[in-house]
Design a protein that fits this description.
about 170 residues
Length: about 170
């Protein structure tokens, strides 16, 4: 294979990564097909999985992959579950499903972390950002706003503005 043909092949293989949407990024952070056993290609697929309840293993995968969730009361603010409750569920995660509310909040948090990671350039920077007061959120910490759908929407909108260079 020529170098030019190899380069074209590599670009074609990378294309799916560039076409990844919010739903598939959140899906990946929650363990993807390995844990959920079914694919998610768009928001409607995500809705169906959330309504049925995410496997508790998905939340464990998210907490292991997003280190900020195991500090302070971040998990409780983001998902509505305490670290202590999560630890009790660890032994029972094979069959347990999260409630629709907890599933929805876990999915929303994963989406926000994924979006922030894209904008900040690294997950480490995104995790630091979520704990710091933001000018465009009236000097509120993004994590403090994730307790409600309206607050999470404000955080998502602010991230979109940041992506386009509008910080206030």
């Amino acid at each position: 294979m020529t170098a030019a043909a190899e380069k074209r092949e590599m670009t074609a293989q990378e294309a799916p990564v560039l076409l990844e949407n919010d739903a598939t990024r959140a899906y990946r952070l929650l363990g993807g097909r390995k844990i959920m056993k079914r694919p998610v290609n768009d928001s409607l697929d995500a809705h169906d999985i959330i309504v049925q309840g995410l496997p508790a293993k998905s939340l464990l995968h998210l907490v292991e992959g997003v280190h900020v969730l195991s500090t302070g009361d971040v998990l409780n603010k983001a998902i509505g579950i305490s670290i202590r409750t999560l630890q009790r569920r660890k032994s029972d995660t094979k069959q347990k499903l999260l409630s629709t509310e907890q599933s929805s909040r876990a999915w929303r948090f994963a989406g926000i972390i994924a979006q922030a990671t894209d904008i900040m350039g690294s997950q480490e920077a995104a995790e630091a950002w979520i704990l710091e007061p933001a000018i465009g959120l009236n000097n509120r910490r993004p994590i403090d706003l994730l307790e409600t759908a309206a607050g999470a929407e404000a955080v998502g909108n602010y991230l979109t503005r940041m992506e386009y260079g509008v910080y206030t």
